Amino acid sequence: MGSGKTTIGKPLADALHWQFVDLDTFIENRYRMNVSEIFAKYGEAGFREIERRMLQETAQFEEVVISTGGGTACFFDNMEIMKNAGKTVYLKVSVDELARRLDMGKTKRPLLKEISPEDLKTYIAENLEKRENYYRQAGQIIDAENLQTEQDISILIKNILV
Questions:
Q1: Reduced to 3 states, what is the DSSP secondary structure of residue 98?
Q2: What residue ranges in 4-105 does DSSP mark as E strands?
Q3: pTM of the entire structure?
Q4: Of all helices (H) and strands (E), which one includes residue 141?
Q5: Cα–Cα distance between 24 and 50 in angstroms, integer?
Q6: Sign of the torsion formed by the C-alpha atoms of 14, 66, 138 and 80
Q7: In tens digits, what is the pLDDT along the chain, a chain of 162 residues?
Q8: Of the candidates 50, 51, 58, 71, which has an alpha carbon nearest to the alpha carbon of residue 13?
Q9: Is the distance from CB of 93 to CB of 145 less than 8 angstroms?
Q10: What gap in Å lies between CA 64 and CA 79, rounded to an integer?
């Protein structure tokens, strides 16, 4: 969450002349609810089931870059689904930088809405520690700490395409 998956994914898809799919947006369009509403109606477990089904569906698409939610890789056999479907990339970012990015957009993220700014870094560090083993299974690990300019994004995309 907050690593730059969509920020990198859209221009990467453009560079490849492929379709870009943000998995959360795909889910929202299918269920005609935003992720926060889905969480409220079905809980996190229900959302993760929906997410898995939609990942299985989008993994069948051809010539597509899929941006998943931060937790997608950590549930069920989702990481295996992604690895079998194509190239997987972990955009690695420090806790401090993630906290800075996420603090700006907390209202859009159901898992962060109730977390105080003081507790955000702790929350991120704890979640990153839980998720790191899944993320490290990605075929490629890219340092995504610096995403300030178009040039930063272009450099990351070139590193992914290598």
A1: helix
A2: 19-22, 64-67, 89-92
A3: 0.90
A4: strand 140-143
A5: 10
A6: negative
A7: 889 999 999 999 999 999 999 999 999 999 999 998 999 999 999 999 999 999 999 999 999 999 999 999 999 999 999 999 999 999 999 999 999 998 877 656 766 778 887 899 999 999 999 999 999 999 999 999 998 899 999 999 999 998
A8: 58
A9: yes
A10: 17
